[in-house]
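Dear U.,

For the methods section draft, I wanted the exact inputs and outputs in one place so we can describe them consistently. I've listed the two proteins in the order they'll appear in the manuscript figures. Please don't edit the token lines directly; just add comments below if something needs changing.

First protein:
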Amino acid sequence: MHQKRPPVLTSYDLRPQAAGLRARGPLVQVEIPGGVIAWAVTTHTAVAEMATHPDVKKGLSYWSAFSRGEIPPDWPLISWVAAENMFTADGERHDRLRRLVSTAFTPRRIEALRSRVEQIVAALLDDMASGDGTADLKESLARPLPMTVITELFGVDAATSTRMTNLVDTAFDTTSTPETAARNQTALMALLGELVAGKRDHPGDDMTSTLISARDDSDRLSESELVWTLILMIGAGYETTMNLIANAVHALLTNRDQLGLILDGSYGWDAAVEEALRWNAAVQNVPLRYAAVDITIQGVTVPAGDPILLGYGSANRDPAQHGPDAHLFDITRQQRPHLAFSRGAHYCLGASLARLEAETALRMLWQRFPDLVATLEDPPYEPSIVTNGFTTLPVAFTP
């Protein structure tokens, strides 16, 4: 008798797939790109427990199939699991990398960006206003705002920024062929290697220079760690914030009653951002973690060496955590903790910056264009099992 093959997690319709998997149970085996079988974690309780479990690891050595040589070097998601930065580190190594990186990512430094974020948003809205009253909100605001912020933060010039944007977009596209993914990773590492070399010779007042000089006693980031850390910080700081802004705008445009509660002063823009983070998370699934030993969570045992896919998007719509109306966008809900920025040791360092950019973008957008409307009610999503964002978000307004 043949064993039934697990369902295939495709790069489209992530939210319906998440609901279907959650209905099957808190942990469900699925097939992800490249034919890899992983445990999808679907509920809030299970994801939170996995994210903080001491025997759930990030290091590739814990993945049995990889250790046996069964995962090829051109596997489409290899850059998500083989990066030499804190995203794939455990224990003391993770703590060391995070400690060195956090010296450049302090709350004080983020707050100091507020006025610059407002300047960037104002300039982007000026460009929108100079047109014919229509725009692709993603290309006009959601994409250029976080990319400008993150590239300025890391001292990246305009020409390099354009090349880097294209490479980062491809890195998040999990439908790329193995050959494309490999070429893209090589190009991105080379580009950021050039950035590190330039900043080493000519340091400036930017995070790349700060990371190069960051020390903890005699400890410092290696050259490879520097490049991989830049890939993590720039990629996460750009792609996820872009999707957060676009997802929040779309949620408000298609839930006009919720928008009205903000415009009449009943709720602040922070409420819209927090609900958007929960309701349509910019990151739906994060590959991969591994069971270091047999682990039983919510009555399901994950054998040692098996890979685990944390379903943050599914967890954020879990009725057990957020109520029977968890599938609805509602800024008035009694907000319980969500997992949009993960939990535990790998909680997102850039969470405060993402919130700052999104709240500023929403507030200034509706101040400038109070009659903003969506001209496509159900815009298509980019293909990915990881990130969750629109390919386009067309809007209309009075210039």
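Second protein (the one for the lower panel):
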Amino acid sequence: MPSLDLEFVRAQFPAFQEPSLAGQAFFDNAGGSYACQAVVDHLNQYYRQTKLQPYHLHPVSQKAGAQMDETYQRLAAFLNVATDELHLGPSTSQNTYVLAQAFAKILDEGDEIIVTNQDHEANIGVWRRLEAHGLVIKEWQVDPDTGLLDMADLPDLLSERTKLLAFTHCSNVVAHINPVKAICDQAREAGVWTVVDGVSYAGHGLPDVSTLGADIYLFSLYKTFGPHLGAMVIRPEVAEKLGNQGHYFNSAFKNKWFVPAGPDHAQVAASRGVVDYFEALHDHHFSTTGTLPEKAQRVRDLLHAHEHALLARLLSYVSQHPKLALVGPLDPDKRAATVSVIPVGQTPQALAQKLVDQGIICGAGHFYAVRLLEAMKVDPNTGVVRLSFVHYTQADEVEKVIQALEQAL
């Protein structure tokens, strides 16, 4: 495994050459990552050259449609799924809402949906609201001390009436990486569909969705170096069961089924830049060729190795500081590079402001994980300080965070 070439990586992101951001260490990646140059270039090109209705007769219109098609084809291949399994909507929250409305039409009164209290509200609230349709909502609860889910609790929640299980790949606060495949396998054995929120995981390496075994997998492209879109993979048999949620005359176009408002043409076309970037990253570091899924796995391993070392350093510091309480597991092998802390003697907002004043881009609050914080006896009105990074973060930036914490505490 080669070492990540950070000079090459950071050259692919315009933000690192932006004077207004000079000297600022970006630790709010869980809220949205920087966009890579390829995405910015494609978006700029689309608005300048092909900003018209795609797929019509004019050659420019045909070019616009071809750019959108390329995104679906290449991004799907990178995720190791079929092109018609990929749907791109305005956001993951909106995509989940559409899904909930679709499931409401095919489920019967008394059918059960299992949600967790570990998730972002986008993957909890839409399912809970289906109680108004006569559905029964069960909650898979976290351990209040650790914020983790226990798989041993799942069998007792499953019954003959259970139809759907919604859970997160990785909490956006606790950061523990859940055993998605094992959970999905257990649900499938019980005849239960699975909806997995991968928003807080995908920015650390786009997953092999087929291997995970989820019936539906969602993530946000604006947290994976792309534009503000939500990506959603739906297994063909589940999509057929749910049916077309868009205009009836578009039923022949699968990628329009779950995007009732229609796709954002420019952003869909620009999203192929995410794959451009990852391919460039692969080819810069590896001489081996291969399919897009094979390249994706090598890139995934490359990013993980880099992030793991930085994460271990930050976790070690936080865990030993008497004025910081770490939220989530200490073991860097079990979590993503999102570190939430609760300070002693000051509010998270006060600590975050002190970090911001020292050039650390970070935030404080509940981050839409209100139910999780309440379960852990943490006041969601103040929440936690969240320090989240991805592969373009440098070791000296982690040291800058540590030094800033020292001064602030």
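Candidate sentences for the figure legend, describing the second protein: Residues 42-275 form a domain with the Aspartate Aminotransferase; domain 2 fold (CATH 3.40.640.10). The chain has a mean pLDDT of 97.

Thanks,
Y.
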